[in-house]
Amino acid sequence: MPGLKLTINGRVYQVDVSADTTLLELLRDYLGLTGTKEGCGKGECGACTVIMDGLAVDSCLIPAAKADGAEILTIEGLASPDGRLHPLQESFISEGAVQCGFCTPGMIMSAKALLDQNPYPTREEIKVALSGNLCRCTGYAKIITAVEKAAAVMGTEADKEQG
Fold first, then answer.
1. 3-class SS at 156?
2. How many other CB atoms are there within 10 angstroms of residue 69's CB atom?
3. Which terminus of the chain has fewer Cβ atoms in its 10 Å neighbourhood, N or C?
4. 121-146 b/e with 16+ CB inside 10 Å = b?
5. CA of 146: how far to CAs of 32, 46, 120, 153, 163, in Å?
6. Which residues have CB under 8 Å from 3's CB, separation 6+?
7. In angstroms, rounded to a whole number, what is the distance separating the alpha carbons of residues 127 and 61?
8. The whole model's pTM is what?
9. What would the pLDDT profile of 103-162 be if each residue is shown by its tens digit?
């Protein structure tokens, strides 16, 4: 397959992959971005969630060729260049919303896509946004609280910037 050109975490990549390569495989196997996890491989668990052109997607279902020209954000791209964690990452830690951590990157990316579209979501909107992500350890309550906390922090930061 001819080379694909995509922007991942702000960096432009040109890669050659086979026609049957998924976006998940491209990220993990070709580019070494292993924060995105493979869970079910069928788009049912959300562990592989990334943001592609502003939307949360299951990267295991996206043929790499469909990502040609796309802007993709993975969990590795959330922290600031100086290493400071994103408010979502900080709130997941402070609220105890991580246990084994396997689902965490996908949960955070789904939450990020939500907060990018809706900076002040209701608890119900958070539940709906995370409904495609499965967690076997935390029971979801702490995850939802972490997203609420991050939304409040991010909203406060945005309000300060607007002056």
1. helix
2. 10
3. C
4. beeeebeebbebbbbeebebebbbbb
5. 28, 18, 13, 11, 26
6. 14, 15, 16
7. 22
8. 0.93
9. 999 999 999 999 999 999 999 999 999 999 999 887 899 999 999 999 999 987 656 666
